[in-house]
Amino acid sequence: MRMIRIKKLDIFIAKQFGLLFVGTFFICQFVLMMQFLWRYVEELIGKGLSLEVMAQFFWYMGLMLMPQAFPLAILLSSLITFGNLGESSELTAIKAAGISLIQAFRSLIVIVTLICCCSFYFQNVVAPDANKSFYQLLLSMKQKSPELEIPEGIFYDGIPNCNLYVQRKDLNTGKLYGIMIYRMNGGYEDAAIILADSGMLQSTAEKKHLLLTLYSGEWFENMRSQDLAGSASVPYRRETFSTKRIVLDFDGGFNLADVTGISNDARSKSLAKISHDLDSIREFNDSVGRAYYREAQYTTFSMPGMTKEDSLKAAKEAAKIDLDSVFYGHKSEDRQTILRNAQSSISMASSEVGMRGDYAKSLYRQQRLHEIEMAKKFTLSLTCIIFFFIGAPLGAIIRKGGLGVPVIISVLVFIVYYMLDFTGMRMARDDNWSVGFSVTISTVVLTPLAIFFTYKANRDSVVFNIDVYRNLFRSILGLRVKRHVFKKEVIINDPAYAEDAEQLRRISDDITTYSHEHSLLRMPNPIKVFFREGDDQYIREINEELEAVIDDLSNTTDKAILTHLNRYPIIATHAHTRPFRRRWLNALTGIVLPVGLFFYLRMWRFRLRLLRDLRTIKATSTDICNRIDEMRVAAENRTN
Q1: How far is CA 397 from CA 294, 409, 453, 462, 464, in A?
Q2: Residue 193 φ then ψ, to 5°
Q3: Predicted TM-score of the model (pTM)
Q4: Least CB-packed of 116, 353, 409, 603 within 10 Å?
């Protein structure tokens, strides 16, 4: 019977989680797609794209972002599932039946593991092809309307046989300023250079040409001459214009771009492809490094026709020569020539080293990107399991369902994960951190949190009980807690009014004696406060006696006495003598001066509060005793 009951419980929890997971997955997918869309919104606006192209764009985007939506959906759905179970006391009933929280997780662990495998499959099989198709579409969109894509300050070569430079452009009017155009229709002999102060670039109605309208410029063009075909000089013409219209050949229809460059991106490769290409990249990088090293060994002393051995021999011979004596042995004008030649050689060597360094850096960056993408396929899948063991225990601890508190917690956890993951990826890409450390930093940070929350939830911890932290906050700041005594619906025993009144009078006398023996207005001795043991037993006994009387009088039906009882303050019995009950903690607080000063002033405040509380107790006890006497007299009159 127990096995059948647990099986039904697994099915019940799995259904609750499954329905929530489907809903939260589409919500997370939509949010991620909208966030991703903002990066490319300029690529879509004003391009005249068909619904088919737009549908493909969003389809491939959704496939790319599915592995990222899985962990967030698991976190949110598991948190809501166990938050609902806790809020409706179903989780309490499950634990009361002898079923631990880990046993309740059993069915969901299997489901989350399957989702983890599904995430890895998407990253390894579906996402690479989707990534390749997505960026192919994106590149095609950029080429469809170049008038919107022309950058500022650099040459744009998206128009066939034409390089266009724009110094500045106005996004509101579409006007271009500081235009420079290089046209190479038939090679050097037909080259044209066009300069203009401003202009406009628009597509024609049939989308087969671009209409370029230029204002206030000059046109320089080489002219091919059949008569001067054998001459070395090429004639040219120069034209100054105020307005000029040029028609450029350009197919504005939507055509898919070449995927050769996109295929080399690590995000467009499966795990097997990355592993295969990574070996080739490493081997190629090593060969380049070895070639640079061998070349650097004999380049300095190499001459045309010299072998490597001859160059190394020349380097050894040069090391034996006194260069200073050789240099100063030349004439003054010859020394200037030598210095200029040396400076020129050094400048050329420095430029060459810089170029080789940039090339080697780009090769190594390509290697790191492949290593990052390989590790990311595993870490992102593993995040599904980690997020489950964060969300489910938190839901069991907080016991709040719905989309309020769970959404806030999920967003906070995901922000922490995203910041760690993004920082690690960026530092690894820029070669500031090692790839292994960077790609696992989010996993290393979140895994102990998942273990901690699971342990606390399984032990019914109050780590997220708001009342506990509220009471701790009140205790630290010394905030007062009011007494609430209400009239009871059923009273079994009436209060012993005479005995209670007599006890209150004795408590008042004890308070008077205590006030004469202890001056609560004086500042306490810091040595006694922080470095000596001691507690105020007298106040503790007075408080215990008073609470016993209040407990007995709370059985009364008299409204006046109930009102007076609520005037009694709740006494902090030890806060006026020392900050903490543990001696070592008090000593440590006293040594740390800023903290010790705070608790010293806090304790003095409790002493002043105790003085006011004792006065209030005496006044309230007097009022209650008078009321009891009135009740006794009234009862005697009724008897007579």
Answers
A1: 65, 12, 8, 7, 6
A2: -120, 125
A3: 0.60
A4: 353
